[in-house]
Amino acid sequence: MASCKPTIDKEKVKEEVFNAEKAFEKMVADKGVAEAFSFFAADEAVIKRGEDLLIKGPENIKNFYLKTDSMKPEVYWTPDFIEVSDCGNMAYTYGKYIWKIKDPDGQVNESKGIFHTVWKRQKDGNWKYVWD
Fold this sequence. Notes:
Blueprint: H1 10-31, H2 33-39, E1 41-49, E2 53-56, H3 58-69, E3 74-84, E4 90-102, E5 108-121, E6 127-131
């Protein structure tokens, strides 16, 4: 088992995770849900969606969201809370999200809720989610 770094700057690591969340949100706006959820997924990523459906791995996550991209959703979120492990290699966030989709008649359907994401620092130093 690897040991922790003796001292990490938790506030700095929290800022890194916050920035990863906001880059993730921006990629959803710029490139679509499927591309962003796939890009930010670690190889071992799992997402849970309605009816306890578990979707594992970046490619399966991307395929799950491809049908959503055609509806061009607007998705906004920001973490209200970030906690970082003592080693600085894992973190979790939670906060509020808003998901907006226009139906074929142009009516905007909006759903709001709470998200919870578990992040893991990758070997290259970037943050990817392992649970969403």
